[in-house]
Each structure stands twice: as C-alpha cells, then as structure tokens.
Amino acid sequence: MKGPRGFWRLVWLTLAALYFTVPLVATAEFSLRGGAGRYDLSAYLFILRDPQFQASFRLSLLLALETMALSLALLVPTAYWVHVRLPKVRPLMEFVSVLPFVVPPIVLVVGLSAVYRGAPEFFVGTPQILVAGYVVITLPYAYRSLEVGLRALDLRTLTEAAQSLGATTGQILRWVVVPNLRSAMLSGSLLILTVVMGEFTMANVLLFYTFPVYLNYIGETHATPAAALTVISFGITWAAMLGILALERQFGARQAQVGAR
Amino acid sequence: MAYLEVRNVRKRFGDVVALNGVTVSVEQGEFFTLLGPSGCGKTTLLRIIAGFEEPDEGEVSLEGQDITGLPPHRRDMGMVFQSYSLFPNMTAEENVEFGLRIRRRPPQERARRVAELFELIGLAHARKRYPYQLSGGEQQRVALARALAVEPRVLLLDEPLSALDAKIRVQLREEIRAIQTRLRITTVYVTHDQEEALAISDRVAVFSRGRVEQVGTPSEIYQRPANAFVAEFVGTMNRLEAVVRDDSGGVDYRGLRLKVYEARGFRPGTRVLLLIRPEAIQLQPGGTGLTGRVVSRVFTGATTRVRVQLDLGGQLVVDVPSAPAKGLVPGLEVAATFGPDDVAVLALPEEPSVGQATQRSPSGPGGAR
C-alpha cells in the first residue's frame, strides 16, 4: 500500500464503499427515528404488528416455497437428462434459460393472462397462478445453479457405474444425482427466494397482495415504517446471499477433493 | 459355445468406424484382455458388452442368451472405470453396498458381504471414509469391491489403472489378478499397456483400427505375433527382410546365409520378414557373420539396450544384461547371433510396391529399418 498506486486504490475503494453504504446507513438511520429527535423501534413495531405485513409476508414466502418445489421438480431431471444423454441440446438449454432476462415482466403478465383465459375460475383466482410466472422469471438463476453443480460432477461415469450395478433412472436420480446436487439445489432455492420476495410487477398487475406489493403500499403511505421495511427486506436478501456463499464454500471444498490422491 | 460371445460386431460414430466386424469369445472364469492403441475400438467393444453402446450390427451373447438389446442395469455385469467413479456422497462402505441395496438384499446379508469385500481388498480400516479421503489406488480398489459385491456374471475393467502411479499400478494389477483367480470370475480387461496385458491375462486380443489382429495367450502374442502390427505393438521387435533359400530353414539376408526353423514351411524364393526380440540376440566383440558396430547404449537397470548398425545395412536393437554390457562401448565391432528357433517369420507380399515399408509397419520403437 505504498506509493501513488496504493493511494488511488484506497480512494476508489473508499468511494465504492460509500456508494453502497451511505444509502443503507441513511435508510437505517431514518427507520429508527421516533420523532422529536429521538431514536426508537416504533417503525419496526408498527410493521411487525401490521396484520397486512404478516399476511403478505406469509403469502410471498409460500409462493417462494412453491416456486422452489416446482422449479426443482422440473429442472433437476431435465438438466440431468440434457447433461448425460443430450449434450448437444445444452447450448439450446442455456439460451432458453436466459430468455426470461430479455422478456419484461409486464409482457410476461399479459402473456400469462392470455394463456389462463378460459382456465377454471378457482385457479385464476388463487395466488398460485403467480407460481407459474415465478418459475419462468427465476429460471435463469435456478438453471445456472444446477448447471454449476452438474458440471462439477462426472455424471456420465457416475450414471454408468450406477447402471452397471443395476440401478434404474429413477434410482439413479434419487440416490446419486439429487444427493450430489444438494448444495446446488439449495443455492438455487435461495436465489428463487430472493427473487420471489422482491417481485412486484406480476403480483401488482394480477392484483395479489404479496410482500413487494405491501412494501410499495407502505412506501407510498408511511415514510418511517417504509424505511424499516426496506431494512427488513434487505436483511432477508442478505441472509439468503450469505447462505449461498457459505454453501458454496463447503461445496467447493468437497468437490476439490474428489479424486485426490 | 463360449460363455461370453461377441459376434461380428460393427459400430460407427458418424464417419468414424470404431468396430469393423469383431468376433471374440471368452470362456467362463477367463481373464481376457482387449489390447490396442488408443482409438482402436477396444473401449467401444467393452461398452457394447456392458450395454452402454448398442452395436450397429452383430450380437453379444452371455451363457447362450442374446443380450444385445438388454439395458445395462439388467445385464448383471460389474464395471470398473478409468476415471474415479465412486459416488462422492457415499462412504466407501455405502458405495460397495449400493448394488446390494438396489437388489433389496436383507441388511444382515449386505453387512456380511461388505465386510468380506473390504477384507478382500485390504481396506477394512477405510470403510467409513468418503471417496475424497482415499488415494487414487484406494478408490479403484473400492470401485472393484463395489463391482464385485453383486456377484456379476462378468467383470469389466476399462483401463482401471491408467490414472495411477507406476508403482501402485503394478501392485494393484497383481492384486486384481489374484482376486480374479480366487473368485474365478470371468473378466474382460481393457488396456493400451502391452506389459500390463501380458502380465495378467489368460488370453489377449490385440486390436487395431476396429479389428482384432490376433487372439492368443500372452506368450503366443509375444513370441509368435500373427502379423507385423502385433509384432510392432507388443514389445520391441527387430525386423529383417530376407528371402527363403531352401526348405530346411535356410534364409538369405542381403547375401548372408542364416538358419531359421520357422522358415521351413515357406517356398524357396519367398520374401519374408524375420522378427527377433531384443533379448534373444547375443553380441560378441569381433567375430564373423551378422557383424556391425555399436552406435549407442541406454542403461535401463537390469539390462542395457544396445543399438547396432549392421555392416549389411539395417539396425538391431539388443537387450544385454547390464554387467557384460559395460564392454560394449559405441564404435566397437560386434557380431550378432541368435538361436534358429528364436525367430518368428512372416511372409511379405509377393510384389514389392513403392512405399510398402510404411504400409506394413506402423511406426514403433526398435524396428530394424
């Protein structure tokens, strides 16, 4: 850290750190203001006691769990099959998996409504209709996580080893593929969680009261509790991200040792 | 009918012909090796036997039953792979138990069998370890135990030692052979290492470009190669072009008369190739006959490899015990001799064509050219 290069490095690092921390610290500081120049937790208590918060939070969490289940049930066998049996299709899968990035959510909503026109009313009326959309918008994250996990394994050889020992495809998935992809599946799930907990457009347009919709409503009506809510939702995202990092460290360490002398 | 039969199997991948009409039969309890350079089709044949690939033509039968279309998980064959293939999420013990669990054997039986196998591979202390905690040699031993656990009808090994250190490779191949002999399990082994093939097999099939060049015991393959490819591929071979002179084994090498018993069957006037192993030749300083000059020598431990430029043209590679080889300094005049029964003879095509030498002899070390 000597000389002009070290100095500039420090300057840029400081600026970057300020760019990220100032808004956060300011929001946190604002959320703690109790009026009349005092700090307290009243904004947080307001949020936590609000039944709408509880309901919307519970709904979003439920949708996230359902999205995870459906995504993994669809993607794990598909990704495995593509890897082992149809490696030629892999580039196509990669392309499809990033498509949701280029389709704006509002377009997706319009498309979904068109698809569900004529569907039974009880289904169109439930928030579960959102899960289908969420599976699509979280596809890039979920597929990428699984890809990374699959690539770290010599799945072809493992599959053949299991086959020669008498295992059927179902048994291979259950005993070999899923256990070895556990970390990849978890990190994919946490990414799904953060995306679903933050998705506003679809829920708002389809008139479901999810956590981000509630966040938006509070933001328009209650200034301090909105800041508190932002800090809470930021905390959820960070917990999920740190969870992924911790998992990847564990996962990576184990993978590196496979095949060691 | 043999225990395991492969009849007239053909397989191509795109434009590449991997197997071009291969027929082999393996007897029950036999250790049978598929030997050849990379890309010769030996691994493809093993994968067809295992059921991972389907042949375009031909059939595979086991105990008289056609299994060509049977999926791999119903073939009852154990396989050990070249790359480490243990399930990383399971301990060594769970790996070995896997096939038994799939077959829903009762727990007591599974435990007994697993214990037996760890005893057999000498790794009883490592049962609870995960694959990443085992060395390469240990992983392959566990993979062998895993394949043996289900008492397969055939054991298939696809270059299981190629990723290991030289010393462990030799040790483990002896263990594999010992276990195979003890269990009398029919085994098909793939390798590109001719020394390995000769050391552990009952019989060897030498492959080249999707075809079987020769099937025989290791000593047949080594001492009486069926053609130039086998002679070249298996060990080092000296090659001298000669013409048969009479029907009592007399041949003519560039004007020099030599005695070769195996030439007795050939018509006088036939052009033949004399094949002589480096260790079958003796060198004496001075002397007459097949004379030449030492050009180089390479110390390899117990023996020293001496290269001799013959006065009549051509070179000989000779393996001499290292102690007497001390006197064979480069430049020394020597005479080479060999016993009349130490030479294999192959007929050459009638009419020599331009470029015939390259056509006949895939490049290999030690050919007398």
Which runs of chain B of at least 5 residues are low in confidence (pLDDT < 50)? Answer: 352-369
> What is the subunit organization of this protein?
heterodimer
CATH class of chain A: Mainly Alpha
User: Quick one: how many beta strands of chain A?
Assistant: 0
Strand content bin of chain A: under 5%
CATH architecture label name of chain A? Orthogonal Bundle
CATH superfamily of the largest domain in chain B: P-loop containing nucleotide triphosphate hydrolases
Tell me the overall shape of chain A.
globular
CATH homologous superfamily identity of chain A: MetI-like
Separation of termini of chain A?
A: 39 Å
Structural write-up:
The complex is a heterodimer of chains A (261) and B (369). Chain A has helices spanning 3-31, 42-49, 51-84, 90-102, 105-116, 121-125, 129-137, 139-151, 155-164, 169-180, 182-196, 201-205, 211-221, 223-257. Chain A has 261 residues and is mostly helical. Chain A has one domain (49-257): MetI-like fold. In chain A, α1 (3-31) crosses α14, α2 crosses α14 (223-257) and α9 packs across α10 (169-180). The radius of gyration of chain A is 23 Å and the shape is globular. Chain B is α+β, with helices and mostly antiparallel strands and 369 residues long. Chain B has two domains: 4-223, 3-Layer(aba) Sandwich (Rossmann fold); 236-360, OB fold (Dihydrolipoamide Acetyltransferase, E2P). Chain B contains ten helices and 20 strands. Chain B is elongated and about 75 Å long. The two termini of chain B are 44 Å apart. Chain A binds chain B through residues 153-154, 157-158, 160-168, 171, 175-176, 179-180, 182, 254-255, 257-261, and chain B through 50-52, 71-79, 81, 83-89, 98-99, 102-103, 131-133, 135-136, 139, 143, 146-147, 150, 156.
